[in-house]
Each structure stands twice: as C-alpha cells, then as structure tokens.
C-alpha cells in the first residue's frame, strides 16, 4: 500500500509507510498502457502493424474492452509505452492519423501516481497516519533567493543561508516527516538552488537526493472566475503539499484527505492539489475500470435530439422562490439531505441509463419526457457509498464528545460534502469523462418538482414559505392556523419524496436582503439570529466575502448584533457612528483594513487605473510577481490618486489609510444590514447628517 510513487531514472519507486518509518521498493519493468479503438473503416491490424515498429511502443496486442458504458466488449489495441513522458505525445500522434475520430484513445491523461496505482492494482491508502513537517518562508525573502529566515513548525531558523540550509536539512532528517507542508511550493526550487550556489551537496528535503518540477504554473478560467495553479514540485519519498494550492486539505483536514485517498485511489500528494472534479473523476474511473470500461481521452458523446418543447423545459436550473424581503420572526430552515446526489441515486440518473433505447417513449423525468432504464447505473453506485458514509458520520457526530474524534469525523464529512456538491454540475461539464447533459437536465427537473410539492405540503399544514432555493426552504407559521409539528411533517415529506428532509435550523429572526439596485430579494443574501443561541448566520453579505477587510467585517457583525438587541434602525445607525468615528480619528489598526482581491489578467492587459492595477504595479516594483488567479493584498492610502501611490501592499508596514474610502465601504455594509427594513445608503447618510450627537444607544 504505497503512499507515494516516484518516477526516478526510468524506474518507479514505491514508498510504503511502516510503524518504524518507511520502506521503498523499485520497479524497473513498469510501462504505462493506453488503448486505441478504430472507426470510420479503419482496421486494427493496420494500426498494429504501424505501432509495433514505433520507437516508443514496447508492446502492442489486441484486447477485448468496453469503450463506453453503453457498449459491449469489442476489439481494441492495447499499447504499452516505454515511458510516462511518451504517453501524451504518442496519443497526439495516433489521434492525428486519418480523419478526426478515426482513432480514439483511452486511458491517456491520468496523473502519474494515480496511473501507476490503477494499473498495478495498488491501494494508495497509507497503513498509518502520515507525519507532517511545516515549512514557511516570507514572500519577500523567497523573492530575494537568499533564504535567511525559514519557519519550521513554528520555530524560526535565521542566519546566513550557509548556516540556515544545513540546519534545516538536519531538522528534516531528524524529524523524518512523510509530508512537507509548504506555504508555497516555490520553497523547493529556491532552497535547492541556494544550496547549489553555496556548494552544499548534501542538502536535501526528500528521502533521496534531487528534486523534480512536475508542472509549470498556469492560469485557468472556471465558472467565470480566473484561477492560478502554482508550479508543482516533487522530492523523493515525501509528499509535497502547497498550502496555497490544496483545496481538500484546506476545506477538510488530513483525515478528510485520507478518506478521499481510499475512495479515489489518488495518493496524498496528487489528491492535495487536485480539484473537486479531478477527485470525482478518479472515483468514477475506478468504477469504470471495475466494470471493464475504458476511460476516453476526449469525449465523443453526442447530445440526443430534443423537441423545441424539451429544449425549453430542459434549459432551466433549480427552482427558487423569491425571498420575501424584510425581517421575519420565528423562521425555520428545512433542507433536503444531499438533494442532488440523492436524486441521482433514488431516480437512477446515470449517463448510460438516461434516454435508453430499451425504454424509449416512457416519461420518467417530469416535464422532459426522458426515460431512465430500470437497470442500475454506474453513477448511483459511485455516489451511494459516499452518501451512506456521510449519513453515518453525521449520526456519530451527534453522539460523540471526543474532540479528536469530532475533528476526524468533521474532516471526512467535509471532504465528502464537496464531492457530493460537485457531482450534479459535473454532469453538464463538457470535458467530463462520463458526464451527460441530459443527466444535468433530469436532476434539475426532479429537484424542481420536489421543491414545488414540498411547498404545497408545507402550506397545507399551516406554514408560509418566505424563501426557497434549490434544496432549502425557509418557513414561518401562518397566524391563525394550526401548524403540523415539523417531525411529523418532515417524516411525511421524506416518505413521499424518498429523500430525507431535515430541520436545519430555527431562527429567532431572519432578514432577507434586497438586491443593491432593486427592491427584489437577493437569492443568497440573508442573515439571522439562531434560536436559543448567541450565534448568527451570515450568507452573501460583506462579512462573508473574501475581499472584505477585517474592520468592515467586524463592524457589520456588530451592526447586526445591534439590530438584534434594539430592533430599531436608528439604534443601528448610532452604533454605526462609533465605527465611523474610529475610522476618522485614525483609531483602526491598518492590518484590519487590508483588501484581498484576485488578479484577473496580466498587468499590461489592464486598461483602467484601478486599485488592483496600482497594487500590481507596486508588487512588480518590489519583485513580487502576481499571475492571473493569484491574490493581491493592499491597503487604500489615497483613493484620489491614479498612480501606484493609491494603495500600499499589506507587506509594506503601513501606518496610514484613506478614511473616506473605508467610510464608503462601511456604509455599504451598513446598507446590507438596514435595507431589509427599508433604509438604503441615502437614508443612512441623511440620518448621520442630521444627528451629530452620539446617543447612549451607540454604546
């Protein structure tokens, strides 16, 4: 059960954790495998004759495989390639022969460690919990290339690089960690290059000498957002995890990652940098291979013919009830447990089963006239164990008070949650290995029907729906009507739907926020006070936005507390005065005013002199490059300027800020709190102008 796979000097090295440390085993005979199917009248025999002479082909033979879930086994060509590096180039070469689609390739674009475990039938789950050593280097120190300060597990190593690097190497050797947790992956090349300059030949971070660059940094776009993927590096025998590039570790913990390793077959290092879709795909790939199905390099799925009515009905998302703007008392939030994944499981929504030929003409999907095969699909088999595991985890969490066990369970639950969240959207993703747009449409159709039926049943039992979105509804009791208790009602709805409806929360009150330039309710902006608790729930407003400075976040939360305490608009405005006064008198720690924004494009492509541009210019002048998708952090010091002096970087050690700029930001945050009560920024400004004296309510 190797936890790390290294490709070194043409061999594969398996690293297995033991109770005493680690063992390694070298495999010199491994060759990666791809498959090719022929179409358009092309012949496998001719392809075999060509490939057997190819310099990168070690072995080629005919095999019987399924090229898709809707296909029976058929002849394909199995091709063993002489090296991992040659797989992609050979695949491109073959796919370029003949007309497009004549030669289709499979099992091509697997990540290196995952490929080895999959083809060798190995589990990547460690036999014990890996040990972790954390290393961090300040950005400006890193940019200098002279590592004079390194934080090792919270302890500072400082001095000349010729002293610091040997001390670091001794620490790593003594601790012998399985995982190196880095604040940025650039630590690896910077340290090794510094060691080379100094002639420190014995310096190493891995369990063997040398290091490798696995991938260069890159920029990508996803759902309209620009992201940045840092360069990835490797050292033998230890997993490298980059804190700036690890979704699952940051959203769960080591226990969550270990759970997903078991489910996906991806070793820890690859899992740490992988996206949600990447892990979901790996889980699906393992299921496909167990069923004898090859994994297409490029999707060849066509969308089946639809009538105009079907196109109209299918082109809709999940159902939403417009929120009733305002403050509502005694509100209950009800959620369907993992609604979309459970729809997939309970309705057998799977790419190879929807609109099957054997049940054509049957109307199984509401409003779309799609049929779904009675035979169990692969996607429900992928998701059902995850749903069951998360249900069991949530059940255990309700009964345990052991902090270590709670942390372990919460990490696993969070990791599963993200996979379940993505499984629906991934069906409509054009590059999904096994997705199908009809699945995406069917899931939405089922969800719309479920939410509408739920609304009707709730209203028939004395409850008024004040908001609903996709899988959640918020209800209040109707005055003068008798309400059916939630436990009875939830049980009845769950039985009808076949998916558990849960009572998520009870609020003393909830405020639904209108859109900034409209009286209509914003679907995902609300806040409220949890019943019988001192906690508040915030969604979508400034204090939940990653770009919001800490000072604005704290102020907005305090204004909400004032609203809860006084239930009076003017009392909130009086509390607002206190925060404004702190700004105007300079009584705010500049570190609490840092704005964090994501860079959307290279500096030279910006045409307007924005604050982001000013921050990028300052970063460039200090040798701190920023790529699209990365964050830039700054404080606004003079918003009237258009030059780089408009802002200062968070790392510059500031003592000034533009109070007027932050006043505007604070008023916007206050508007989010008061707009459910009908007060916009204009009314707030008018009140502040008319009432100069601070009343006792502000305190």
UniProtKB/TrEMBL annotation:
What the entry lists under InterPro entries is as follows: DNA-dir_DNA_pol_B (IPR006172), DNA-dir_DNA_pol_B_multi_dom (IPR006134), DNA/RNA_pol_sf (IPR043502), DNA_pol_B_thumb (IPR042087), DNA_pol_palm_dom_sf (IPR023211), DNA_pol_type-B (IPR050240)
Task: Tell me if Cell cycle is a UniProt keyword of this record.
Answer: no
Give the enzyme's EC designation. Answer: 2.7.7.7
Query: What are this entry's molecular-function GO terms?
Result: DNA binding; DNA-directed DNA polymerase activity; nucleotide binding
| Superkingdom of origin | Archaea
- Is DNA-binding one of the keywords? yes
- Please list the reactions this protein catalyses: DNA(n) + a 2'-deoxyribonucleoside 5'-triphosphate = DNA(n+1) + diphosphate
The UniProt record lists the DNA-directed DNA polymerase family B multifunctional domain at 285-675
Keywords carried by this UniProt record: DNA-binding, DNA-directed DNA polymerase, Nucleotidyltransferase, Transferase
Q: Which Gene Ontology BP terms does the record give?
A: DNA-templated DNA replication
Matching entries from SMART domains are given as: POLBc
Family, per entry: Belongs to the DNA polymerase type-B family.
- Which NCBIfam families does the annotation name? PRK05761.1-4 (NF004418)
PANTHER family named among the record's database cross-references: DNA POLYMERASE CATALYTIC SUBUNIT, DNA POLYMERASE DELTA CATALYTIC SUBUNIT
This one is known as: DNA-directed DNA polymerase
Organism of derivation = Halogranum gelatinilyticum
């Amino acid at each position: 059960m190797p936890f790390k796979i290294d490709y070194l000097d043409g061999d594969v090295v398996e690293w297995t954790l033991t109770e005493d440390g680690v063992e390694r085993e070298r495999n010199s005979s491994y060759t990666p495998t791809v498959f090719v199917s022929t179409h358009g009248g092309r012949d496998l025999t001719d392809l075999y004759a060509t490939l057997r002479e190819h310099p990168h082909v070690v072995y080629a033979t005919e095999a019987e495989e399924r090229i898709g879930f809707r296909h029976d086994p058929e002849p394909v060509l199995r091709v063993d390639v002489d090296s991992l590096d040659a797989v992609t180039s050979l695949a491109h070469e073959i796919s370029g022969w003949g007309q497009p689609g004549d030669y289709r390739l499979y099992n091509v674009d697997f990540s290196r460690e995952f490929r080895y475990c999959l083809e060798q039938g190995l589990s990547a789950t460690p036999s014990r919990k890996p040990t972790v050593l954390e290393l961090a280097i300040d950005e400006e120190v890193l940019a200098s290339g002279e590592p004079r300060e390194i934080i090792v597990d919270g302890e500072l190593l400082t001095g000349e690089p010729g002293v610091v690097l040997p001390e670091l190497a001794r620490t790593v050797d003594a601790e012998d960690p399985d995982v190196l947790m880095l604040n940025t992956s650039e630590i690896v090349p910077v340290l090794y290059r510094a060691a080379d300059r100094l002639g420190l030949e014995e310096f190493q971070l891995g369990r063997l000498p040398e290091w490798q660059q696995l991938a260069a940094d890159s920029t990508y776009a996803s759902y309209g957002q620009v992201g940045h993927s840092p360069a990835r590096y490797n050292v033998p025998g230890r997993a490298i995890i980059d804190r700036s590039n690890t979704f699952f570790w940051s959203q769960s913990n080591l226990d969550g990652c270990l759970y997903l390793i078991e489910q996906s077959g991806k070793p820890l290092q690859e899992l740490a940098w992988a996206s949600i879709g990447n892990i979901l795909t790996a889980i699906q790939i393992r299921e496909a291979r167990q069923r004898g199905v090859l994994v297409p390099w490029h999707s060849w799925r066509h969308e089946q013919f639809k009538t105009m009515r079907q196109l109209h009905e299918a082109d809709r998302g999940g159902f939403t009830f417009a929120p009733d703007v305002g403050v509502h008392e005694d509100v209950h939030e009800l959620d369907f447990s993992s609604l979309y994944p459970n729809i997939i499981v309970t309705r057998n929504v799977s790419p190879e089963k929807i609109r099957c030929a054997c049940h054509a003409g049957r109307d199984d999907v509401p409003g779309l006239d799609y049929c779904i095969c009675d035979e169990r699909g692969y996607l429900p088999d992928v998701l059902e164990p995850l749903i069951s595991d998360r249900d069991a985890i949530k059940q255990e969490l309700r009964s345990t008070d052991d902090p270590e066990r709670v942390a372990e369970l919460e990490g696993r639950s969070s990791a599963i949650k993200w996979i379940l969240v993505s499984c629906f959207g991934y069906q409509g993703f054009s590059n999904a290995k096994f997705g199908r747009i009809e699945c995406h449409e069917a899931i939405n159709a089922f969800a719309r029907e479920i939410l509408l039926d739920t609304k009707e049943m709730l209203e028939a039992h004395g409850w008024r729906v004040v908001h609903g979105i996709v899988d959640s509804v918020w209800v209040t009791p109707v005055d003068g009507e008798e309400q059916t208790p939630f436990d009875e009602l939830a049980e009845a709805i769950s039985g009808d739907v076949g998916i558990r409806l849960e009572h998520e929360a009870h609020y003393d009150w909830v405020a639904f926020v209108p859109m900034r330039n409209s009286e209509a309710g914003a679907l995902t902006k609300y806040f409220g006070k949890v019943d019988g608790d001192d906690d508040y729930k915030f969604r979508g407003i400034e204090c939940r936005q990653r770009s919001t400075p800490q000072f604005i976040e704290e102020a907005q939360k305090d204004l909400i507390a004032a609203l809860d305490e006084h239930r009076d608009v003017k009392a909130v405005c009086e509390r607002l005065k206190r925060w404004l006064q702190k700004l105007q008198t300079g009584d705010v720690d500049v570190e609490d005013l840092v704005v964090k924004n994501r860079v959307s494009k290279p500096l030279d492509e910006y045409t307007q002199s924005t604050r982001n541009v000013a921050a990028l210019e300052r970063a460039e002048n200090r040798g701190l490059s920023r790529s699209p998708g990365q964050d830039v952090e700054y404080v606004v010091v003079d918003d009237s300027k258009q030059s780089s002096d408009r802002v200062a970087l968070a790392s510059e050690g500031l003592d000034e800020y533009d109070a007027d700029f932050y006043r505007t930001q604070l008023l916007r945050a206050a508007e989010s709190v008061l707009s459910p009560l009908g007060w916009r920024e204009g009314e707030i400004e008018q009140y502040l102008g008319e009432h100069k004296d601070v009343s006792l309510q502000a305190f």
